[in-house]
Amino acid sequence: MKEYSLYLGCLIPNRYPGIEKATKLVLDRLGIKWSELKEASCCPAPGVFRSFDQNTWLTLAARNIILCEEKNTDLLTICNGCFSTLVDANNILKNNGDLRVQVNDHLKKIGKEFRGTIQVRHIIEFLDKEIGAKMIDEMIEKPLELKVALHYGCHLLKPTKERKLGGAEFPKFFDGLVEATGALSIPYEGKNSCCGAGGGVRSAMLETSLKMTEFKLERIKKAGADCIVEACPFCHLQYDSGQVELAKAGKIFDVPVVHYSQLLGLALGYSFEDVGLHLNATRNPGFESKIALLQKKDASIK
Prior knowledge:
globular, four-stranded parallel beta sheet, 16 helices, alpha/beta, 302 residues, 8 strands, 51% helix, single chain, Glutathione S-transferase Yfyf (Class Pi), Chain A, domain 2, Rossmann fold
């Protein structure tokens, strides 16, 4: 069985350890052989860093990839931003000999060399292609009768010519994984628009960032969603902490935010606390009660 190196990035272990725990529980339950990628650094972030200094961005990304090359494992990410940096850097260095030489000149100072022998995977496309919604559905113990507002996130889908995941404007692969848990992925206006966090917008222009988040939340609330499900801790942060920030201005939404690993963990029978959802800044007692009731149902009723 092939082994994968789990790349956690910065945000998950520092801000949302529940996503980390849920992911590890889910990978184990699905029978996926994995090990944590030790000594990894920041990816580094795909937006601002790449724009200012591409060679440094490539060198730092390449070092993370090399750690997997040395283990002979593919790299598995659970963050859209980390995926964007690492998959793009991997492809650029595999296909651009001049840049590869420049980067390896830097890396040889620490005894490293990029060889281009591994693949970078995102947990959503990995689960879709390697496990499949049908198999996940067969493993579900606690079907989740929820109406889910799904958020793909920008870096998972674009640039389209690089990602090649199919249907970038109207994707369906993530919806299928969500519905394998028993949930319903509901349509809503602006489904594929940005959460508002990326590209340094949250850091540099918080007010603008929150307006983008408010746009999404208004439409998600109008659609009657029980929760938002995403695949990126930065999107998770924007929706979770962003709701707290918007509430200070009297704009209350109280929509729970759930990473897909956490959703799948709940459907596999793990508790709210097991998957770390009790650590979110935005808490909705009604949602927590609904999850508790769903998990008490007879698992044979699907």
